[in-house]
Amino acid sequence: MYAPCKLLVQIDTIGGILESEVVAFSRSHLRLRAAQIDFALFFALLALTGLALDVLSTSNATNHYVLVGFLIVAGFYEPIMVAFRGATIGHQLANIHVVSVRTGRKVNILTAIFRFLIKSLLGWFSYLSMFISRRNEAVHDGMTRSCVLIKDLSKANTNQYTLGPLMPTFDSRQDNNLNLPH
Q1: Which one of 89, 142, 155, 163 has the fewest beta carbons within 10 angstroms of its own beta carbon?
Q2: Is the pLDDT of residue 18 over 80?
Q3: Helices marked H in the chain
Q4: Contact of 118 with 129, CB cutoff 8 Å
Q5: 3-state DSSP call for residue 35?
Q6: What is the CA radius of gyration of the chain?
Q7: For residue 28, what pLDDT is reported?
């Protein structure tokens, strides 16, 4: 059995992924699982907010504060988690993380916000491109030059990722000559 871990653990001294390094791109089913987990967390938070509104409904001002707090947490959960931890809770449980294609490190906060806005505006349509992309990229990945990789390859099955270079070569013939197992 092929063990690609050695290709993937070569990290530079600053902690980014080397440009010539081969990485494991997350397949669509892991990304969708992560989205489902985050969606469930969103609805749990929504239920807790409703409960808080019911319990604390002493005044309209209190209700507005609770509602505004919910909107702030819900709106900034993903961008903050992706920018500062590299992954949401759903991503972490699915063993994936978001990195910049340019640096191989976590995306910055502005990129994370832009990525979230694109994904929110397009909804599930943003994910459709994953099914035709060799790197399993969604629209919001391509527009923000980010990608979703397997975090710990030793915990992943071979059907959960596809191998390839972090930096796209823009020459499909060169990508096909990598002779990587699938």
Answers
A1: 155
A2: no
A3: 5-8, 28-55, 60-85, 89-93, 109-122, 125-128, 139-144, 172-176
A4: no
A5: helix
A6: 19
A7: 92
Name residue 88's amino acid.
T
Write down the pLDDT at residue 140: 94
**What is the separation, in whole angstroms, between the first and last Cα of the chain?**
12
Report whether 130 contacts 105 (CB < 8 A): no
Q: Find tokens 């978001």 and name the residue.
A: 98
List phi, psi (to 5°) of 149: -115, 160
- pLDDT digits over 117-166, tens only? 999 999 888 888 888 888 899 999 999 999 999 999 999 999 999 998 88
How wide is the angle at C-alpha 178 spanned by C-alphas 173 and 98, nearest 5°? 100
Q: Any idea which residue has 């980014």 for tokens?
A: 16
Q: What span, in angstroms and rounded, lies between the C-alpha atoms of 66 and 77? A: 16
Supply the pTM of this predicted model: 0.75
Contact 167, 28 (CB under 8 A): no
Contact in structure between 25 and 147 (CB atoms under 8 Å): yes
With 0-12 CB in 10 A as exposed, 13-18 as middle and 19+ as buried, what is 171?
exposed
> What value does the mean pLDDT take over residues 71-89?
91
For residues 13, 92, 24, 9, the Cα torsion angle rounded to the nearest 10 degrees is 30
Question: Both tokens of residue 14?
Answer: 């600053």
Classify burial at 148, counting beta carbons within 10 Å of its beta carbon; exposed 0-12, middle 13-18, buried 19 or more.
buried
